[in-house]
UniProtKB/TrEMBL annotation, chains A, B:
SUPFAM superfamilies for the chain: Putative DNA-binding domain
Pfam families: MerR, MerR-DNA-bind
Keyword Transcription: yes
Protein name as catalogued: Cd(II)/Pb(II)-responsive transcriptional regulator
Keyword DNA-binding: yes
Top-level lineage group: Bacteria
NCBIfam families the UniProt entry points to: CadR-PbrR
Gene3D superfamilies with a match to the protein in the record: 1.10.1660.10
Domain HTH merR-type, chain residue ranges per copy: 1-69
InterPro entries found in the cross-reference section: CadR-PbrR, DNA-bd_dom_put_sf, MerR-type_HTH_dom, MerR_fam, Tscrpt_reg_MerR_DNA-bd
DNA sequence: CTTGACTCTATAGTAACTATAGAGTTTAAA
DNA sequence: TTTAAACTCTATAGTTACTATAGAGTCAAG
């Protein structure tokens, strides 16, 4: 199949597929007489694997590692598991950062109501005068 | 004061300050005879304001809008308030996405233990065989 | 008068795409 | 058979908010 069909089957844009090839996530394929890329079912599988990983927010570099690991089926699982653990930890940290941020934003938001002018704006005042003015 | 002192006072890198100038978050300043940028206290204030906004994850474009608004003190607050509301909503959404993602990752992680080989890896199997294999 | 610390501009790199431009290829209808 | 539409190719630039150079100029102290 040609790249357009692969794109449709995997719900992935044509440019993204070419990008993944350049980034070594998909190996270079056969080409037709007219220099069009030709793919088989294995390519569909691989691209779907990549998409699932991206949905888990794994980076392209991490996915590249996973693909390499898949090619040595006798090796131990440790690396895969460690990658997952690290990744989960990062997501956890990010969630906590965002929860804190949300609280900051909500407090700030409460410092203003709609009927004010910019001059009286509680939000802008807080952001401006915070620690460094009026002692 | 020169750019290095401003950088120290605001805990902001010299390159970032120059970048903010290019992006119109800081206006172009006076220059010394030797073409060095010269700043006053107002610049310190403004840069600290920008930093606080960045800590709230506001984009440079949003901050640019806020700075513009600050310059028309008679106008109404609506725009500021609307920007905050939108921003809070985005953070909320992102938190929910990440919480879901975390659950996915945890389930996936549980499908493997350390003593396995890649071939038996529950994680890789799940990612590979998901919907599209085995009917 | 030279050394070192500072500053200047311009350019490239980061991550993971997305969006062109300009050219060639293939398929189908007219 | 011509021609038009639809597809594909490569190469390049843009996105965000910086960071990191290179190569040159400025300034103060010793
Ligand atoms: Zn990760
Ligand atoms: Zn307000
Ligand atoms: Zn926002
Ligand atoms: Zn495993």
């Amino acid at each position: 199949m040609k790249i357009g069909e692969l794109a449709k089957k995997t719900d992935c844009s044509v440019q993204t597929i070419r990008y993944y090839e350049k980034e070594q996530l998909l190996c270079t394929t056969q080409r037709s007489d007219g220099n069009f890329r030709l793919y088989d079912e294995a390519a569909v599988e691989q691209l779907l694997f990549i998409k699932l990983c991206r949905n888990l927010d794994l980076s392209l570099s991490e996915i590249r590692q996973l693909l390499t690991l898949k090619r040595s089926p006798g090796a131990q699982c440790d690396q895969v598991n460690r990658m997952m653990d690290t990744h989960i930890q990062q997501v956890e940290t990010r969630i906590q950062e965002l929860v804190q941020l949300r609280e900051h934003l909500k407090v700030l938001r409460r410092s203003c109501s709609s009927e004010r002018t910019i001059e009286q704006c509680g939000i802008l005042q807080t952001l401006t005068t915070n620690q460094h003015q009026k002692r």
